[in-house]
Structure formats: C-alpha cells, structure tokens
Amino acid sequence: MNLRNTALLILTGMLAVSCNQHTKQEKLAAEPTYDVVFAKGERVTNDNFTGRVWLNNLVNADSVNQNAVGSVTFEPGARTKWHSHPAGQIILALDGVGYYQEEGKEKVIVRKGEVVKCPIDVPHWHGASADSAFVQVAITGRENGETVWLKPVTDEEYNQGPK
Amino acid sequence: MNLRNTALLILTGMLAVSCNQHTKQEKLAAEPTYDVVFAKGERVTNDNFTGRVWLNNLVNADSVNQNAVGSVTFEPGARTKWHSHPAGQIILALDGVGYYQEEGKEKVIVRKGEVVKCPIDVPHWHGASADSAFVQVAITGRENGETVWLKPVTDEEYNQGPK
Q1: Are B108 and B100 in contact (CB under 8 A)?
Q2: Do residues A121 and A153 share a domain?
Q3: What pTM was estimated for this model as a whole?
Q4: Which of A69, A77, B4, B155 has its CA 20 to 30 A from that of B87?
Q5: Which InterPro entries match (chains A, B) (predicted)?
Q6: A5 touches chain B (CB under 8 A)
Q7: Does residue B31 belong to the interface with chain A, where contact is any CB pair within 8 Å?
C-alpha cells in the first residue's frame, strides 16, 4: 500500500475511534446528578404509611432537647396516613416533589427548598407526588406526647387537586 | 487536487474538529456539580460572626412552635463567635465541611449529612473549615430566651486541632 492510502486508512480509523469516544462522553454528561444529604435509613414497616417509605432518625428527643428530627424518603405515590402532632411539626423539603394537605384545605405541592409548618393538633398528611420521590426532614416536638395516627389517605384524596 | 488527497484533507479536518469537541466535552463534565437545597439568604452584617456568612430564616419561632430554623452558609474560614443557647440547638450539615467546638473539648470536623446536638447553655462555636464552605440548618429553641453571644473565636483557637 502506498503512503497516501496508509495515511487515509489511519486517519479514518482515528476518526472512527474519536467519534465513538465523543458519543460516550455526551451520554455520561447527560445523566442527571443526584446529591443525597442524609442516608436513606431503614425501610418503614409499620402501617402508618401507604407505599414505600424510608426513615433515618437523625436526632431522638430527650430531656435536653424535646425535638425529634428525622429524614424521610417517600417513593412516588407513597404518603403518611392522616395524622396530627400535639406540639406541631416543621417539614423541610430536601429533594424531589411532595404533597401536603391539612384537613379542610386544598392539597398543595411542596418542592425542594420549601418549608411547611404543621399547626398543633391539625390533622394532615404528606408524602411524595405521584411522579416524583420526595425527601423531607421533619422536626417534631415531643414535649406534649406522640403523633396521633388517623386513617389512611385514600387514592381519591391523594389524587385530587394539583399534580 | 486528486480524489485521494482531497479525502485526506477532509478527514484530517474532521479529526481536528472532533478532537476539539471531545476536549471541550471533557472539560464541561469535569466541573463539579453543586446542589443547593435552600437559598443562601442575606449576607449577615452583625458582629456575631468572623468572615463572610449568609442567613436564610426558614422558620421564625412563634407561640405555635418555639423553634427557629435557619439555613446558614459560611465561606471557608468563617465562623460564629463563642455563644450558647438556653434551650440547646441542633445543627444539620447540609453541604461542605465545617468545624464545631464546645468549651473544654477538642474541635471536631462536621461533614455533609452529619448532625450535632448542642447542649443547653454550653459555650460553643461552629463554622466552615479553612478550605471548604459549610452549609448548615440550625434548629434553635427559643422558649428559654435568645442566644447568648460571647467572644470571637481567635485564629489560634480556629486553627488548632483537625483540619
């Protein structure tokens, strides 16, 4: 083979390899990044929730500080039962999209970076949206006793209002 | 120019362009991702801190819930003064690397995903590490009054112990 044909062959080969690398690099860069703050914790097995939920107890209430702080991860569609807190609760939305509803009010969407203050003794529920997981940190005062668990959130209740 | 030489020229040109794209793609993919949960808030201008600090008041304490919750961003080297909390405090490390020290104890490093429970009335300080910014959510009970601010953390105190 003469020199020119050899050069042609080599260049074609290099181009083929380079194009393939380029395509692979694009694909990697297109994958979404996901930055978890707190470990997911343990899968919740009690019946206070619908769907798949994980709990990481970050801080337990004690005589020094009556706040319990936990990170909760809800898979899409998962939610708490209706429930209330005798000392209220604060929800920090760390990731994803969630739903929150108080008795007598419309369901609202809660997004990463938003905060919800649940009033004392008002029945409410919260969880992931239908299409997205939801990660929350819940700050719950224990000084007036434990959470009062009520009935499950029906699919009809869950699906009404905003998506 | 004959056909072979033309092909050679075209292929060389394509290779040159492709290599350049490939290099650019690598550079973009190498930039670190940063996923902020809460907005940084306002630059703190009072003298309770050393260095540059931002505060986003997420939840104000009120008669319903006596917890104040804020997101604080410390630039590298920035820290609080020594101070104490009459109802204690909980620090959730959301991002970066920070320092925390209680009076009479060694300074410790606090990393994203870790939690610190500050005891009632114990003087302490916290902030970013020397080389990394630090983002924390602080949960502070206000039922026993306000934070008691003490003296600034000297550079010697800040730099002793782990880096």
Answers
A1: yes
A2: yes
A3: 0.78
A4: B155
A5: Cupin_2, HNL-like_cupin, RmlC-like_jellyroll, RmlC_Cupin_sf
A6: yes
A7: no
